[in-house]
Design goal:
- Helices cover about 55% and strands about 15% of the residues.
- The chain contains 8 helices and 9 strands.
- It is rod-shaped, with a radius of gyration of 35 Å.
- The termini are far apart.
- The model has no long low-confidence stretch (mean pLDDT about 80).
- It is a multi-pass membrane protein.
- It comes from Spongisporangium articulatum.
- It is found in: Cell membrane.
- Its main location: membrane.
């Protein structure tokens, strides 16, 4: 069902009234602000709103698409904003996306979430928290954009934690090469996906801060809201820079993993070769004494003792030499 709110002078005065009453509220008071949250599956409601606010057909088409990149489009009577929030699934390392499309008019904000898990309630809580009073549509837009950017920031923090776990796994006493490679790929894939969402948001917030972005004669972002949008823009920059640096770290982890594998293989081959040299000594001695010719101690107990002493002495000597040279 559609959710509605009516603000007047920065205060919430009504909510959950029928969308059909929106026109009455707007006509009754020039200072009223409306928030309407639509169900994208309810085509009848959307048709009514399109006619009521004269929404552009291209914006309506984009609002119903699931794969639109974050953007801000400017039309004659309204703006169209689409953004995608994120969170990290710790089990799979994949991003969970929640997209919202928004129509922005001079006195109304219309949201159309395409997923049920978009944090609408958190957005309302921020509107009511008193940080930036809802005295303009720009203040509403700030609450929405702030939610999306904060979700990106939380996601990149979670990915950073995953990267630290990956580094611990890389230098474990018994590292799992397959697990390191798979997890590295998952983290890198999520970082690339997150960057594709965060980079356009930088353009969106930067555009919102421009003075020429107006709805009618009024700037969307007034002087009171400007510092709050600058704070959001700072968070967007930090997310994009963080994702770039983490992508480099993931690449370093993959290269380090290959280097460690090579070093481990060299160490194994060194030990195998050393043990093969040690085993070659008794093989050579027993082979020599196995000749079908007389030799010192041939046919006597002393010959067996002598060959055994030679085998043990030479083997222990090789083991001591290899350990001294760190070959074993």
């Amino acid at each position: 069902m559609a959710r509605t709110r009516l603000y007047r002078d920065g205060k919430l005065v009504a909510e959950n009234f029928p969308p059909a009453e929106i026109s009455d509220h707007l006509e009754a008071d020039d200072g009223s602000l409306i928030w309407l949250d639509l169900d994208p599956e309810d085509g009848d409601q959307l048709d009514v709103i399109v006619e009521e606010f004269q929404l552009h057909e291209l914006a309506v088409e984009d609002a119903l698409e699931d794969h639109e990149r974050p953007k801000l489009d400017v039309y004659a009577s309204h703006l169209f904003l689409t953004a995608t929030g994120t969170r990290l699934d710790p089990a799979t390392g994949e991003l969970v996306l929640c997209k919202v499309s928004t129509f922005i008019t001079d006195r109304a904000l219309i949201t159309v979430p395409t997923t049920a898990d978009f944090p609408i309630d958190e957005m309302l809580r921020r509107w009511d928290s008193g940080g930036l009073p809802v005295t303009s549509v720009g203040a509403m837009v700030h609450g929405l954009v702030d939610i999306v950017v904060d979700s990106h920031f939380t996601t990149v923090e979670a990915l950073d934690d995953e990267l630290e776990k990956l580094e611990d796994l890389l230098f474990a006493d018994r590292p799992s090469t397959t697990k390191v490679q798979r997890r590295s790929f998952e983290v890198r894939k999520s970082l690339v996906h997150l960057r594709k969402l965060a980079m356009p948001m930088r353009e969106v917030v930067n555009t919102l801060l421009r003075r020429d972005i107006r709805i009618g004669e009024v700037p969307l972002v007034d002087q009171a809201a400007t510092p709050y949008f600058h704070d959001v823009y700072d968070h967007v920059l930090r997310v994009t820079e963080w994702t770039d640096s983490m992508r480099d770290v993931v690449g370093t982890v993959l290269e380090t993993n290959l280097t460690i594998q090579g070093n481990r293989m060299n160490s194994i081959m060194k030990k195998v070769t050393s043990w093969a040299a040690v085993i070659a000594v008794p093989t050579a001695v027993t082979g020599f004494y196995g000749q079908n010719v007389p030799y010192p101690g041939y046919g006597h107990w002393s010959g067996f003792v002598l060959s055994t002493v030679i085998i043990v002495a030479l083997s222990l000597g090789l083991v001591a030499l290899f350990k001294k040279n760190d070959w074993l």
